[in-house]
Amino acid sequence: MKDKRTKAPARPDGATIKRCAIYTRKSSEEGLEQDFNSLDAQREACEAFILSQKHTGWIALPDRYDDGGISGGTMERP
């Protein structure tokens, strides 16, 4: 039986592309109304790290996965 999985895409330099999702969370709503808040800071830090790994094929996905004001003690997520 043949394996139907496709090979991960590669860049011209041969590095395998690794798509990175960034998940940010803050357990309370305090401060989320600010123009630049904790979720933004977390995302910036993750984007900077992913950019530092660009030579190995890492890329950040553009979608945002933010849990603002949702406690980690609950599984109820939007």
Walk me through this protein's architecture.
This protein is α/β, with parallel strands linked by helices. The chain has a domain at 8-29 and 37-64. It contains one helix and four strands. It has one helix spanning 38-52; strands at residues 18-20, 23-26, 58-60, 65-68. The strands form two sheets. It has a two-stranded parallel sheet with strand order 1-3. The chain has a two-stranded parallel ribbon with strand order 2-4. The N and C termini lie far apart (40 Å). The model has no long low-confidence stretch (mean pLDDT 85).
Features:
78 residues; alpha/beta; two-stranded parallel sheet; two-stranded parallel ribbon; elongated
Brief summary:
With 78 residues, this protein is of the alpha/beta class. It has one helix and four strands. It is elongated, with a radius of gyration of 17 Å.
Show unreliable segments.
none
SSE series = EEHEE
Oligomer: single chain
Name the average pLDDT.
85
E-strand count: 4
Give the helix tally: 1
- Ends distance: 40 Å
Radius of gyration: 17 Å
The amount of helix comes to 10-25%
Proportion of strand residues: 15-25%
- State the strand order across the main sheet: 1-3
Question: What profile does the largest beta sheet have?
Answer: 2 strands, parallel
Question: What would you call the shape?
Answer: elongated
Structural class by sheet pairing and helices: alpha/beta
Q: What's the layout of helices and strands?
A:
Blueprint: E1 18-20, E2 23-26, H1 38-52, E3 58-60, E4 65-68
Parallel strand pairs: 1-3, 2-4
